[in-house]
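Explain this fold:

***
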Amino acid sequence: MARRYLVHGVAAILAAFAALVIIRLHSASGASTVAEGGAEGHRLAEAWCKACHLIDIKTAGTAHTAPDFAAIANQPTTTELSLKVFFATNHHSMPNLILSADQADALVRYILSLKGK
């Protein structure tokens, strides 16, 4: 009888462990959290930034009035904090953006996703 409970207990623990591994692999592949943040950030960049900045890797390096997002992402001083501070301050050469915290986070995630590209 005790052995039966032990076997069921071990089986339950193994099933829970397998479920955690599957969930972790799903998140590690970037399936939900990263993809959603990147997609939202890209959508915001297309709506607000595309008129002046090149926002996609495929067009990076071509002539445009403002630095492309890949160049911004690859500057040594570009960090999550530096981008958030930049978005929160006024700039004479850029329109004043009024972003919610979620919008700023999504735009920062998108720009930082271009680092190294």
Notes: Helices lie at 2-28, 33-48, 69-73, 80-88, 101-113. Residues 16-21, 23-36 have pLDDT under 50 and may be disordered. Residues 27 and 64 are 36 Å apart (CA to CA). The radius of gyration is 22 Å.
